[in-house]
Amino acid sequence: MGDIILQTQGLTKEFRGFVAVNDVALSVKRGHIHALIGPNGAGKTTCFNLLTKFLAPTRGKIHFNGVDITGDRPAQIARRGIIRSFQISAVFPHLTVLENVRIGLQRPTGLSFHFWRSERCLDQLNERARQLLDQVDLGEFADTITGSLPYGRKRALEIATTLAMDPELMLLDEPTQGMGHEDVDRVTQLIKRVSEGRTVLMVEHNMSVISKIADEITVLARGSVLAEGDYASVSRNPLVMEAYMGTTQGELEGAHA
Ligand SMILES: Nc1ncnc2c1ncn2[C@@H]1O[C@H](COP(=O)(O)OP(=O)(O)OP(=O)(O)O)[C@@H](O)[C@H]1O
Ligand SMILES: [Mg+2]
């Protein structure tokens, strides 16, 4: 096990004969920010669904910390410390920002619900929730109704509620999607900050984000691994450029700016 926190072998997912993920060998190093990139339809989200057991693989193995987790149920995966960021739809719009993080802390896979239920500990719960909000620069929004937060801040809250579950491996699917420049920069720095002491596996289309924070990149195309390496090697790889041609070529070019 050692350095490698997550490893897949021959990971494959077929949908009625269509191979969405094809024989993928993924190796994620402990402490890394590992990016999964590739053109639309490459199989990135399907990969995430396989890792979190939202989908069962057709073939292949998944090891986490050296343990075969291929047969685990989603709840077991979460208990092991693999947490996928909750979508915005999973936060409660009518509650305050602080309340949403507290709920995250009270999830079964977070700190023990019964522990927090005792009066004595409610203060600690609030304190921990505020720490998490500070970590994602949402301290000043603690008492804001979540539904009225600007979009980029909602995504930051999503990261805070994920952090509340103290993930060892955090999976982020397009954390900067739909954001303006300023929010993208803030969330990029935020991911870098919260990755300390954890491992992050993220799907990201924005190559500028990847060039700034990814330690390792795996490029998927049509379900298969096309290339792997750091940003410098992957971005110059002719196979990668070709895969992006005509689809999201602009994103690769944009990264050089
Ligand atoms: N439940 C499903 N049934 C059938 N086909 C599916 C299913 N889920 C995904 N696919 C197909 O598998 C392929 C990979 O889809 P996936 O969503 O994993 O791609 P992606 O890399 O996340 O793309 P994007 O960048 O657009 O998010 C696509 O062709 C998609 O249509
Ligand atoms: Mg996707």
From TrEMBL:
Recorded source organism is Jezberella montanilacus
GO cellular component term, pick one:
plasma membrane
| InterPro entries reported for this sequence | AAA+_ATPase (IPR003593), ABC_AA/LPS_Transport (IPR051120), ABC_transporter-like_ATP-bd (IPR003439), BCA_ABC_TP_C (IPR032823), P-loop_NTPase (IPR027417)
What are the protein's UniProt keywords?
Answer: ATP-binding, Cell membrane, Membrane, Nucleotide-binding, Transport
Recorded hits in Pfam families, A to Z, give:
ABC_tran, BCA_ABC_TP_C
- Protein name per its UniProtKB record: Amino acid/amide ABC transporter ATP-binding protein 1 (HAAT family)
Task: Please list the GO terms describing molecular function.
Answer: ATP binding; ATP hydrolysis activity
SUPFAM superfamilies according to UniProt: P-loop containing nucleoside triphosphate hydrolases
> What are the ABC transporter domain coordinates in residue numbering?
6-247
